[in-house]
Structures are given as structure tokens and as C-alpha cells.
Amino acid sequence: MSIPQQGTRAFFTYVGCRTTRERNARGDGLNVYRMEAETGHWDHVQLISGVVNPSFLAFDNTLRVLFTVHGDSSDVSAFQIEPATGKLELINRQSTRGRNPVHLAVDPSNRFLVIPNHVTSNIAVLPIAPDGSLSEVCDLVTVTGTVGPHRMEQPFAKPHQTVFDLAGRFVVVPDKGLDRVFSYRFDPTGRLVPANPPSVACRENAGPRHAVFHPSGTFAYVVNELDSSVTVYRYHDDTGGLEPIQIVPSLPDTFTGNSRAAEIAISADGRFLYVSNRGHESIVAFAVASDSGRLNPVHWAMSEGKTPRFFALDPTGRFAYVANEDSDTIVRFAIDAVTGALQATGDSIHTGSPVCIVFRPTS
């Protein structure tokens, strides 16, 4: 997540979405907004139409370039950011040599982009040129293992995210199809080398989806989509190894319907962890124990919409923005600084099928 930037008066906000009929989507492309830090008010700046399924976004480390994968396709694009206006201009588009790229992460040297291809079971590494353009894939790693028991959701390996640890030495990859979380050492030449051990098994039919590191670097948290849970791991930064220490449900025990967990985020001070639930239509806030990293649920906030696939904590730490994919809204919540609970503000932005939000300070 973004680091709090006190004193910054405004941010440019970039919103990715689903656009295709196959996804029953209503998105219109890549949208840019200007957000006032104090009030959370958004003004629309730019629409780049014709961008197919810009479903996950990431900045380069200089905040001069925005990258987006094109969900359900086989491509990733790089856009130049105009510092004064926040507007985007396409630099180039490159193949990921796989199908349905679902996430992306920039390495600490700002020289490589790491992308999981969800339905072709591989992870691609692409070089980033000094001008932000992307070169052809320089490493392609196939993820293998024994598939999970869910016949529809786990027919093969399905890497769902790539996230660097805080030191930037290892890449963690939750795999929904294999019920495993993989670790790779990231070589300075842009190659992924399996860690030792290379992976950790999750609870059967958990469906690990996304991960986030505690700001201390001592713990990692993985949201499991299929059984709506969160696994707490002790992270060994010398080996990239993950040691499970707790599993907690993301749903209240009073909910008896169907739901799937989606996104995960942690506050900048590491005191609170958040997870979204699609079906229950909620965001759960957990208190994080500072010594053990263990989680305790403190509050469920209804998402004020349908299918909260994604949410983001804003860089000031004052607001959370929930992207309700199937009700075409981004809803603003205030974050209680004492309890971590999300409180509805009544404010929302209408935009088609939103699925990703990232923030950049204005110049």
C-alpha cells in the first residue's frame, strides 16, 4: 500500500476496470482523477477509452510511468505520466507470453516488471527501459504442483499475484489453483530462482489470492479466496520462507450464505489489516497484535455496493475507497484512527466496473 504523505494537498488517482462483454462489464477504459487530500473529493481529469480490461495497475519507482495489465488477454502496457496534470500517454504495449495477466510488481531497481499469467500457470519478467518502455519477456517461469480439490476453480496452477518483500530480494506468489504460496529469489539479472523451501502448503481448498507484508517485514498475510479466510505467516527474510501461525475467517459467524474474499491491505503503521468479501459485500477490519502478528476481527463495514473486488487505503491513511465492481461505484469510507473501523461517508463516484485504484501525489 502507499506510504502516508502528510502535507500533500492532492493526489492523482488512477482507476482500472473491466471492459469486455465476456466479463459482463460496463467499464470505459482507464480513468484519471484528482483527489483533494483533506476532503477526499475527486474531479475527473482524463479518460483513455479503448483500453481493454486495464484490470490491475502499478507505478514505476519514480512515479513517472504507470503500467497496466490487460485482463483476459496476453498484454501489458506502459503509460507516461505528465507530472503537472497527471494525464497519461501510451509508451508501448508488450506481450506477457501467457494468458490473463492479473497482477504486476516493479522490482526495487526499477529495471524489471514481474507479472503472473493466471490461466497459463506462468510468471513473466519484462525489462523496463530508462524511458519506461517495456521490452520482451526475459524470464518465464512455469508454476507446477498438485491441483486443489475444487474442480471448477482449481483445474491447474493459477498464480494470482506477485509481491516483493520489503527488502526486495524475494517475490511471493499466492497460487489459487495449487493451494500454495510460492517464494522466488529475484536475481539482479531479472531471473526468478525458487527459494528454499520453494513454497508452503495452504489449507486444502483455501485458494490463496493476494498477500501483503507487515511494515516490520516480520509477518506476511495471505487472503484466501475460496474459503474466505486469512492466513498469518511468520516471514523469514533470509530465505523467503513462510511459516503459518494462524488462520482466521474473513466473514462473521452469523453469515451463512456464499461469499469469496478478494483484496487485502494493511495500514501504514501495521496496526490494522483489511479484507474485502464478495457476497457478504463487506470490508472486515482486523486488529494486528504488534508482538505476534496475530489477527482479531474488530468490525465489518458493508461495502455500500455489490462485489467489492478491490479497495485501497489512501496515502494519508484517513480514507478507504471500495471498488464495487458490479454496482459501478467507488465508495469512500473514513478510517477510525483508534479502532481501525471503516465508517461510511455517504460519498461515492460512479464509474463502470472498477477493479483497481492507485494514488500518485500531485507535483
Kindly summarize this structure in a few lines.
With about 375 residues, this protein is mainly beta. The protein is about 0% helix and about 50% strand.
What does this structure look like?
The structure is a single chain. This protein is mostly beta strands and 363 residues long. It is globular. A hairpin with a 5-residue loop joins strand 2 (29-36) and strand 3 (42-49). It has no helices and 28 strands. It has strands spanning 10-17, 29-36, 42-49, 54-59, 65-70, 75-81, 88-95, 105-106, 112-117, 122-127, 139-142, 163-164, 170-175, 180-186, 192-201, 208-213, 219-224, 229-236, 241-249, 260-266, 272-278, 282-288, 295-302, 308-313, 319-324, 329-335, 342-350, 354-361. The strands form seven sheets. A four-stranded antiparallel sheet has the order 3-2-1-28, with no helix packed on it. It has a four-stranded antiparallel sheet with strand order 4-5-6-7, with no helix packed on it. 0% of the residues lie in helices and 52% in strands. The two termini are 20 Å apart. The model has no long low-confidence stretch (mean pLDDT 96).
**Strands, total number:** 28
Please work out how many helical segments DSSP would assign: 0
Strand content: over 45%
What structural category characterises the helix and strand content? mainly beta
Report the helical percentage: under 10%
The strand line-up of the biggest sheet is: 3-2-1-28
Largest sheet: 4 strands, antiparallel
- Give the overall form: globular
First-last Cα distance: 20 Å
Q: What is the overall pLDDT average?
A: 96
- List the uncertain runs: none
What is Rg?
19 Å
Helix-strand topology string: EEEEEEEEEEEEEEEEEEEEEEEEEEEE
